[in-house]
Amino acid sequence: MKTLKYIKFIVIVLAISFIGCEDNLELAPEQSLLPEVATSNPANLQNILTGIYDEAGQTVSYGGQINLASELLGNDTDLSWNGTFEQPAQLIEKQLVPDNTFVRDYWLNAYEVNNQANIVLANLDVFEDESERNRVEGEAKFLRALVYFDLARLFGQSYNVGGGNSQLAAPIVLEAILNPSDITSPSRSSVEDVYSQVISDLLSAYSLLPDSNGVFADKYAAQALLARVYLQQGNFAGARDAANDVLQNSGHSLTATYDAAFNNDGNSSEDIFAWQITSQDGVNQMNTFWAGQAFGGRSGNPDVSVNSSFFDIFDDANDDRSQFFYTTSGGTATTKWQSQFANIPFLRIAEMHLIRAEANFRLTTAIGLDPLAEINALRSRSNAVALGSITLQDVIDERIRELSFEGFGLHDIKRLEGTVGPLNYDDDFLVLPVPQRERDANPNLMQNQGYGS
């Protein structure tokens, strides 16, 4: 049984005024709280914080559609889109338009999460207990860093290891907005500035959060996300050391079998952080798009089917990961997302093993574990034959076998400077357009190349 019940905490800025002939009444809706009340005590601020997890886990964001964007936009021939929605079809065809509603909703949800995190951070003085204050601050910074990282990766060109990184990403807004009159029209910040903000928030979150925090983010969730950020930057020493810290000290471990890492009602030993789904709250949209109809998927059965070319990545027919699929009338479905109400793993300990192995290999070090032993430990868990030696490509291939369909597709192609069919990793059409709705409201938002002026 899950312990988390999400609370949607809506801050109503303006009270409703009713003016009669003989009296003047100002009544606030019973289900609403004015801003000064909503932020007036620790319990209310905690409710806002809990609501941010619910906001970030919505279907339009980490509940499924951000992963879908990375996998479809980063796909050449391995996946097919069978669904009826035009928005994902534009992703897989690399023919996005600025009014694509999926893209619009990624952006809007990120800034909803950001503003609610800013509200929490602006009102920490209501806490008298220092440990409680630190935890709340750390969680808010973790969530803010999370959305900015993906805003940079999806709406900005890839991070350049050589420096510069003046390419535009998304506006950085760190002030809480409680009144519509306070809304500004910021310009887009650079990729460098957004990454710097993300890293600053995660370093702070790591220092503030407790070692364990139930189903909410703890210090090792912050450290695991930081390892992911450093890897995307090509900061291999930072990625290695952050991943090693998680592996050595978090208490998380690989599940005994590959199957046991997925479709769980509660967190497994492998989940450093997972989005919580119940039959009462939350929707696992990974299931909606990737599962066959018999398991809760849409009429595409599945909407996203896995093509035969994907299976070329496997070098051992006995590898459990090569058999983690099932056939439907619409194609081949991955078994990773087979349960409607299962949690969505987001930071898995397997990813930390792969980050540490890759970073150690590139740096010719063996912090924590020799890269060959690390890769073979993952292969052993999936009943794949052990390798006698490895190359960098072996490490990358192992990453694909382990993490496919979990939202890494586009981002790994960009950091490895690969291609998607005829498109180079830095092609304009592997970056999402700034939503037209946002540009209509804010004339200071410059559009990405290839999508008009």
UniProtKB/TrEMBL annotation:
Keywords: Cell outer membrane, Membrane, Signal
Domain of life according to the entry: Bacteria
Classification via PROSITE patterns: PROKAR_LIPOPROTEIN (PS51257)
Domain RagB/SusD residues, every copy: 261-419
Localization annotation: Cell outer membrane
Major localization listed first in the record, in broad terms: membrane
Domain SusD-like N-terminal: residue ranges: 25-231
One GO location term (cellular component): cell outer membrane
Pfam families: SusD-like_3 (PF14322), SusD_RagB (PF07980)
UniProt record similarity statement: Belongs to the SusD family.
Protein's recorded name: RagB/SusD domain-containing protein
UniProt source species: Aquimarina amphilecti
Species lineage: Bacteria, Pseudomonadati, Bacteroidota, Flavobacteriia, Flavobacteriales
